[in-house]
Amino acid sequence: MTTAQGTKQDPWKLKTxxxxxxxxxxxxxxxxxxxxxxxVGKTTLLYDYQCLADLHSMLTAHGDWMELGSADEQKPAKDxxxxxxGRSESNPRGGWYGLKKGLRGRFGMYVPPLMEALGxxxxxxxxxxxxxxxx
Length: 135
Known about the structure:
With 135 residues, the protein is α+β, with helices and mostly antiparallel strands. Helices cover 20% and strands 27% of the residues.
């Protein structure tokens, strides 16, 4: 569990599931919408903040481990993965939780560690093929 407040001044400091790269996330508002700002090096991604509750609900209903399947926006996501769900028309958002065109992917890379830090999920930390499940 994290003690960070998840603000721009006190962001969540996270590592990718394989524990190979560090990045930061924090909650903010953009165009009147709650968002998660994800800062990876010099790149900034945005995700709909509602993804945390929606992903937790989906994982709880799923009831077992689910592969993360992270992929860039331009690449197809493997069926049955967190990444595929994060861009599926059948999720509660009706499509991409990523909000920045061209950088909407990698949902399965950056959101699961935040869910783990917030005590909402368990994530594996293997070199490849990581999975998550709801707590």
